[in-house]
Amino acid sequence: MKNILVIGSTGQIGSELTTELRRTYGGDHVVAGYIPGAEPKGELAAGGPSAIADVTSGEQLAEVVKKYQIDAIYNLAALLSVVAEQKPRLAWKIGIDGLWNVLEVARENKCAVFTPSSIGSFGPSTPHELTPQDTVQRPKTIYGVSKVTTELLSDYYYLKYGVDTRSVRFPGLISYVTPPGGGTTDYAVDIFYAAVRGEKFICPIAKGTRMDMMYMPDGLRAAIELMEANPDKLIHRNGFNVTAMSFPPEKIYAEIRKWKPDFKMEYQVDPLKQAIAESWPDSLDDSAAREEWGWRPNFGIGAMTRDMLEKLTEKLG
Question: Is 187 an active-site residue?
Fold first, then answer.
């Protein structure tokens, strides 16, 4: 990769991924793509070039790609799971109509494309324990439907046109940098904010509900390492199961209490979030990613908890 465009650079993943890519490839080689009203600020604005890059406009995307001689696109434009259920048409417009525009621009300009999928691409009929790389995908949410479509459409452009498409199925991503924005796994971020602020946490997910999670530094590394992987080694492309840990709410609560023994939590289950969570896997089998491009997480639940509490304490003062 020589010049990279990050679409959705000011979002939950994009803001951190853009910064990490600039550390790796140099600020001048990574363009922060954004939509009006969500302009880059602070370090994100100062660290390199930025440009309006709305996935709903193929012409606009093409102009940016040509202007900056882009050869790799990280397409992070999407609504998160809970928000998508409330705005299904918009979720499709951004996630799928937008992806079509990205892939067409990539085909015409010979760009590689990373568009993340999700554990949400699985559904109630999927095996929930150690969910295989290749298995039934029949999600019951528009978020999940769009992610399955993302995988299939990306594969189609690779097989038909030779576009170098790649993706991972992200689990819940936990970060201290950017607040969550409407995902089912957001509770695993919100609980840390409550702990650091000394507040009781109201958990919207029921006790015993396990979901796969990953600390953001591992998530960023997964995206970059996959795009750097030798294509001759890739049997799968869209998208790889990746994971680092799987836990229910009571497990992360217990880990936090090792550092914050007075921390309190109670359950007030959100029916929509709970229904989505129950349709997702309890744990993923990521052996294909490990075998095909050497994936290994660096953070388990203990190391992540310690680092999250330290970093959030610094951030919140």
Answer: no
> Which residue, 291, 182, 264, 171, is CA-closest to 219?
171
Q: Do residues 182 and 112 share a domain?
A: no
Predicted confidence at residue 185, as pLDDT, reads: 86
Total number of domains in the chain: 2
Half-sphere CA count of 282, side-chain side, radius 13 A: 9
CA 77 to chain centre: 10
HSE toward the beta carbon, residue 66, CA cutoff 13 A: 9
What distance in Å separates the CA atoms of residue 24 and residue 43, rounded to the nearest whole number? 16
Q: Are 199 and 171 in contact (CB under 8 A)?
A: no
**Predicted pLDDT at 1:** 66
Domain of 161, in residue numbers: 4-171+216-241
**What does the alpha-carbon distance between residue 31 and residue 18 come to, in Å, rounded to a whole number?**
8
Q: Residue 79's pLDDT is what?
A: 87
What's the chain's length in residues?
Answer: 317
Q: Extract the residue ranges of the chain whose pLDDT is less than 70.
A: 1
**CA 173/CA 87 separation, integer angstroms:** 22
CA 7 to centroid of chain Cα atoms: 13
* Contact by Cβ (8 Å): 242, 284: yes
DSSP string, 44-105: HHHTS-EEE--TT-HHHHHHHHHHTT--EEEE-----HHHHHHSHHHHHIIIIIHHHHHHHH
- Among the listed residues 34, 74, 143, 157, the single catalytic one is 143
Q: Hey, what are 190's tokens?
A: 């919100």
Torsion sign over Cα 265, 266, 272, 274: positive
